[in-house]
Amino acid sequence: MRILGIESSCDETGIAIYDTERGLIADQLYSQIELHAQYGGVVPELASRDHVRKIVPLIRQTCEEAKLKLKDLDGIAYTAGPGLVGALLVGACVGKSLAWALDLPAVEVHHMEGHIMATLLETDKPEFPFLCLLVSGGHTLLVDVQALGQYKILGDTLDDAAGEAFDKTAKMLGLPYPGGKYIAELALQGDETRFNFPRPMMNRPGLAFSFSGLKTHTRVTWEQQKEQGNNEEEIQQLKADIAAGFQLAVIDTLSKKCLRAIKQTGHTELVISGGVSANTFLRETLHKLGKKHHFRSFFPSLKYCTDNGAMIAVAGAMRFQNKVIEQNNLIRAFPRWSLDQLS
Ligand code: KG4
Ligand code: ZN
């Protein structure tokens, strides 16, 4: 079964074809990052218009890469939410129209389910049930994944998402958007012990997250300390030390909450996905923690951590195979859609 996956929930147009016998056979991605970078964040209307421009040529390229014609496909999977409504509607309109025109079944995929299933594109992959830490620009969730479509949210963020905290801190330090990877790069030159940033919600029981206090603490530190910098070199070092201290506080919080959830649920496999799962320090920290506490961590390869079409194609293919699809004749987009509503 060959499934075309379409992702357009935010600022990436991702198209891929997943073959249930051969695996991923084509994968194309167009990132709008440059378009939005000048505004320091995603401009929804520009995002929708750019998806309109790119989506059909990308579908053609993906078919060429797979050496397939549209008529060789067996189904269409597209992201129906959560995300920016205009951006989602582009993918939903194209996905559903293609399915109607080709007389194929279509499936609406939850973007975060796509992130969870991205790990299953790897050869060394987890088996259900497992625990999942979903860390992206919009979400920070600990999810008990029982099976495809069966999710129980164990912990959510009360305010900012982890990726959002990275992006806001990066913006404050004058780094480009989206700032997660720039903070990680800068942190390599920093002293993580110079400032001791708070570990939010660590001394309370439970699995909830909160990053806005840490963000404020980081801002206050930057504003106070930069006044004392005498030259460009000192300011540069200050930025690197703040990036390192901030990153350590976020990663420490995420990994300790994962350990807490592992102990609470008894799972021995942990999947980490979403844009922040590209963070090398997070990857190393969880691998080390797993060795000590007897659990295994699974990450998607770097290109499938951030938004892409492959994760939607594989999640859609699993839904078709397991017959977990809702047949309807509607073009729908759900800007807000909780994962546990799928269960
Ligand atoms: O999953 P994603 O592509 O989009 C959403 O669904 O939100 O995640 C994007 C987020 C951004 O906040 C970005 O700064 C963050 O992932 N990110 C990182 C790294 N690479 C991307 N955060 C920390 N370290 C990284 N290496
Ligand atoms: Zn995402």
Per the CATH scheme, the topology name of the largest domain is Nucleotidyltransferase, domain 5
Number of separate strands: 10
Alpha-carbon distance between the two ends: 25 Å
User: How much strand?
Assistant: 15-25%
Ligands present: 5'-O-[(R)-(carboxyoxy)(hydroxy)phosphoryl]adenosine, zinc ion
- Main beta sheet strand tally, sense and closure: 5 strands, mixed
Q: What is the molecular shape?
A: globular
Q: Provide mean pLDDT, rounded.
A: 97
Short description:
The chain is an alpha/beta fold and 343 residues long. The protein contains 10 helices and 10 strands. It folds into 2 domains: 2-117 and 304-342, Nucleotidyltransferase, domain 5 (2-Layer Sandwich), CATH 3.30.420.40; 127-299, ATPase, nucleotide binding domain (Nucleotidyltransferase, domain 5).
Features:
343 residues; alpha/beta; Nucleotidyltransferase, domain 5; 2 domains; 5-stranded mixed β-sheet; 10 helices; 10 strands; 43% helix; 18% strand; globular; binds 5'-O-[(R)-(carboxyoxy)(hydroxy)phosphoryl]adenosine; binds zinc ion
Structure write-up:
The structure is a single chain. The protein is an alpha/beta fold. The chain folds into two domains: 2-117 and 304-342, ATPase, nucleotide binding domain (Nucleotidyltransferase, domain 5); 127-299, Nucleotidyltransferase, domain 5 (2-Layer Sandwich). It is 43% helix and 18% strand. It has ten helices and ten strands. The strands form two sheets. Strands 3-2-1-4-5 form a five-stranded mixed β-sheet, with helices on both faces. A five-stranded mixed β-sheet has the order 8-7-6-9-10, sandwiched between helices. Helix 9 links the parallel strand 9 (269-273) and strand 10 (296-298). The longest helix is centred in the C-terminal third of the chain and has 34 residues, at 232-265. The two termini are 25 Å apart. The mean pLDDT is 97. It binds 5'-O-[(R)-(carboxyoxy)(hydroxy)phosphoryl]adenosine and zinc ion. The site of zinc ion (ZN) has 5 residues, from helix 4.
